[in-house]
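Now for a concrete sample entry.
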Amino acid sequence: MTGLIIGLLLAAFVTLALGVFNIQWNFFVKAIHRATTSTRQIALTFDDGPHPTYTPQVLTQLEKYGIQATFFCIGKHAATYPHLIKELHRRDHVVGNHSFTHASTIDFHTRTKWLMEIQQTDGVIEQTLGKRPRFFRPPYGVTTPHLAKALKETNHAIIGWRVRPYDTLNRSSEQIVRTILRKTKPGDIILLHDTHERIVPVLEQLLPALKHRKFDMVTVENLIQQDAYKQD
């Protein structure tokens, strides 16, 4: 009997851990990872910016192919580089909330601390653009009961992803592109980062390849047909 109880507790712990670290499970919050569509629309998303070096280079690549994307920005970076937030908006990209600090310990935040993170980032973006973001992506894709309670109060739409090539790890641009091309299907949301030196060679290979496959790259707003900014 003791062994059975230990086994059940261990199974419950493993399930809980997997639920925390896998946003696709919708364990604590219901996130949007893709759209059901009859077209070949997909959405490219970029996390952790804006970055003073790489974000402008990403914008150049996107403009070259006439693509609009969604950028989930860290609040402290948005506060430091407001001109880049304005430039994202000027070029018709969507700006979303990705917490204020993206701290390594953020997953241990209480509801109150999560509210501070989310609302502070909303405030920075609203002060810069005159619009308050409605889309939120949890740092690391980790969700917790405390975050769920905070998001219930802020009423954000939670945006996940279906394709994650782990582009911030020690992988070549060719490996990253192959992963994306192998996995991507119509309606998918793809997770990338505009914060590292490999992102430009990735986009130089990826964008024409996706175009060749007749994918239409749009913002998350257009893909899921939901407003990206809160309406008064």
Confidence is low (pLDDT under 50) at residues 8-21. The longest strand covers residues 41-47. The beta strands are 41-47, 70-73, 94-97, 135-136, 157-158, 189-193, 216-218. The CA atoms of residues 183 and 196 lie 22 Å apart.
